[in-house]
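lol forgot to send this yesterday, sorry. struct tokens for the thing we talked abt
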């Protein structure tokens, strides 16, 4: 089993055609609190992955999980991390992003960390990965914040194309989600609030 990545919360190991996500102990947290947090986040992420699989939305494909060991096993996805190829055909990829987010939001699934580092392109199919911050919500605010996080990520990592890319993603989002108009109106409020905070 080879370690292929590490984030703030977990390490990823590849074994054959599977990926194992292992939430490691955070020594700065109280042991009981740390265990409780890792267990609840593992359980929640597993539920989200199962819902994604059931809805047919391309993502990390759930295989199994172990709440005691705080581990999730998923099917390995080959291909390119979208961050590395996004600028080469950003309009095409932005449409895929917008459609995927629309499918999630229609089913009240919030990703919580929409960056091109958390997307893998495999044979022109865009898979969302890393659902560690995901949750279920029917709130317009939560969906608007999800879109705002995408905008921030595009601006940060793909600043040369982000305005056109973000507009393309929102247009595609609107085509696939009947509530998009309300979400985008709320998004304007979220963005104004963000600009206001930056001034003080």
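and heres what i got for the seq, position by position
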């Amino acid at each position: 089993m080879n370690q292929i990545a590490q984030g703030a919360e977990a390490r990823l190991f590849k074994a054959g055609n599977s990926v194992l996500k292992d939430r490691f102990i955070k020594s700065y947290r109280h042991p009981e609190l740390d265990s409780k947090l890792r267990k609840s986040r593992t359980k929640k992420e597993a539920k989200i992955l199962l819902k994604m699989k059931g809805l047919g939305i391309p993502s990390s494909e759930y295989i199994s999980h172990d709440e005691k060991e705080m581990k999730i096993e998923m099917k390995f996805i080959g291909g390119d991390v979208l961050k590395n190829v996004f600028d080469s055909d950003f309009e095409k990829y932005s449409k895929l992003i917008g459609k995927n987010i629309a499918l999630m939001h229609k089913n009240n699934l919030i990703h919580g960390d929409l960056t091109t580092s958390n997307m893998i392109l495999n044979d022109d199919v865009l898979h969302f990965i890393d659902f560690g911050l995901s949750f279920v919500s029917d709130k317009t605010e939560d969906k608007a914040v999800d879109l705002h996080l995408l905008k921030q990520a595009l601006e940060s990592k793909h600043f040369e194309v982000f305005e056109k890319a973000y507009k393309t993603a929102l247009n595609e989002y609107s085509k696939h989600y009947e509530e998009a108009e309300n979400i985008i109106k709320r998004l304007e409020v979220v963005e104004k609030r963000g600009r206001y905070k930056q001034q003080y």
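The chain has two domains: 2-75, 80-198. anyway ping me if u want another try
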